[in-house]
Amino acid sequence: MSQPNLTKREIVLGIFEKTGFPQKHIRDSVQYTLDAIVEALLNGRNVELRNFGVFEIQVRKSRVGRNPNKPDKDVIIPRRAVIKFKSGKELKERLKKIDLTKFEK
């Protein structure tokens, strides 16, 4: 059975439990970190977090798609930016050791 998504609130509480720092300071620090990541990506910079991974923006070309409800009609999917994540070495190593049955539906 899968667990619910990890939320920003859970991250704050986890750090609070380990450090005892005021939750408001932790929440602000987490938000500033996320804001810095977003700003860097929007300015064309990759975000490299050592041992975790790299976030980068990639541009997907415009293409023709099909609406499954109306397959006789072509739909133009516009060119757009997407975020790509490439896991770092340490994360890749840890992924090799996980129990895959937890992720099967």
Topology:
Blueprint: H1 8-19, H2 23-42, E1 47-49, E2 53-60, E3 63-67, E4 70-77, E5 80-87, H3 89-95
Antiparallel strand pairs: 1-2, 2-5, 3-4
- CATH homologous superfamily grouping of the largest domain: IHF-like DNA-binding proteins
The rounded Rg comes to 19 Å
Described by the principal axes of the CA atoms, the overall outline is extended
Spatial arrangement of strands, main beta sheet: 1-2-5
- H/E order of the elements? HHEEEEEH
Please state the average pLDDT score: 93
> CATH architecture of the largest domain, please?
Irregular
Q: What is the number of domains?
A: 2
Structural class computed from helices and strand pairing: alpha+beta
Helix content: 25-40%
Q: Total number of helical segments? A: 3
Beta fraction: 25-35%
How can the largest sheet be summarized? Answer: 3 strands, antiparallel
Cα separation of the termini: 8 Å
Low-confidence stretches: none
What CATH calls the topology of the largest domain is: HU Protein, Chain A
Please tell me about this protein's structure.
- The chain has helices at 8-19, 23-42, 89-95; strands at 47-49, 53-60, 63-67, 70-77, 80-87.
- The chain contains three helices and five strands; from the N terminus they run ααβββββα.
- Helix content is 37%, strand content 30%.
- The relative contact order is 0.12.
- It has two domains: 1-44, no CATH class; 46-105, HU Protein, Chain A, CATH 4.10.520.
- The strands form two sheets. It has a three-stranded antiparallel beta sheet with strand order 1-2-5.
- The chain is an alpha+beta fold and 105 residues long.
